[in-house]
Design brief:
The structure is a homodimer of 211-residue chains.
Chain A (H helix, E strand, L loop, with lengths): L2 H6 L8 H21 L6 H8 L3 H7 L3 H19 L10 H16 L2 H13 L8 H24 L12 H18 L6 H12 L7
Chain B binds a DNA duplex (16 and 16 nucleotides) through α2 and α4.
Amino acid sequence: MTKAQAATRPATSRNYPKGERRRAQIIKAALTAFGQVGYRHASTVQLAAACGVSRAGLLHHFPTKESLLEAVLEERELQDDQHFFRTDGDPIDGLEYFASMIRLVAHNQANPLVVSLFAVLSSEATTADHPARPYFAARYERARSQMTQAVEDLAARDLLHSHVAPSGLAVSLIALIDGLQVQWLLSPDTIDMPEHLRSMLRNVISVELPG
Amino acid sequence: MTKAQAATRPATSRNYPKGERRRAQIIKAALTAFGQVGYRHASTVQLAAACGVSRAGLLHHFPTKESLLEAVLEERELQDDQHFFRTDGDPIDGLEYFASMIRLVAHNQANPLVVSLFAVLSSEATTADHPARPYFAARYERARSQMTQAVEDLAARDLLHSHVAPSGLAVSLIALIDGLQVQWLLSPDTIDMPEHLRSMLRNVISVELPG
DNA sequence: CCTACCGATCGGTAGG
DNA sequence: CCTACCGATCGGTAGG
């Protein structure tokens, strides 16, 4: 068990494998439901039914709907960490960073539930008083900060095309990745997300990406 | 009254100014509500209350919630037409097209309600059985087709940087515009949507845009 | 985890 | 037959 898990799960849970399995099942069902109908429209009654427990049973594991949302976002964050965000503190290699980003987008494209979750929740979270708004605001700020470092690394090594403005490029590339998800969810057969990202990166980076 | 309006509004409505005003009021309130909490979570009861009519009164104008959604999308479409989509049939001037696109994004940035409506509805509509899914699928297909023509016009006139791949560029630029909306709604003070679009267009177009 | 509930609200429809 | 609503209520479901 990692440190992050220990901080978010009750320490006793390791001793109750059945409860742990149920908890994981509920999180997975909630991830699916939130991605399909949004957080606000998802109902704990239907979630409980989908997991074969009563609504009171579900509320034993997650006392409020909001606590379930937190668990879903944490779960998703852990998956990202595994694939991508390993460079805490280390200086960022811009080429490696964007190669990893393409791999992450390709990985997401193989997991429609995860894409749907983030496409639906991130825009739902822009509205006032949404419980996930602070999470997404912080997440985007962190992503922009990290990608800006990657862009600046490329600029310092003269790996951007000469006419490309590095300022604001991170914001636009994150926007590109987000926007591709909506078009892909609507037309999965005509949109290839990692290919479009790679193509746009080729438009601004003057050397080929590794990997 | 334009052809589009005549096709969607009852022909008799012009003779009932009070009903017409009420109808416009309801559409505006629905546009706000759908953008704030999404279509599914918005309630006709609250909409009616916000308009000072009973729920039955609201349903007199819009017999179903879905018919109200249609009216909101048509209303928004008409606004777009006024500002932008005037080139039906005509060949597209790529430079004019993207200059208009920047103006449209700037116009949207001055109207948070409209941005919120589209950011929230477009992703909500990606989910199965959403009544607006066909609308958004068709809208994106049309937008891609139109922007692809603009990109091809630029390519034919040699106005793209030599290393830029025109294929798929329209998809990515539309994705960029959509993605910027989410970041802007979460951080309106740190994101300038038209500026980021202009900057990205400068990265691929080798001449300055008009206007 | 269950049964048994609460105050309220959902989208849609009735007759007048 | 039209409009612009009204008060009441249908069977179900919401989060807690």
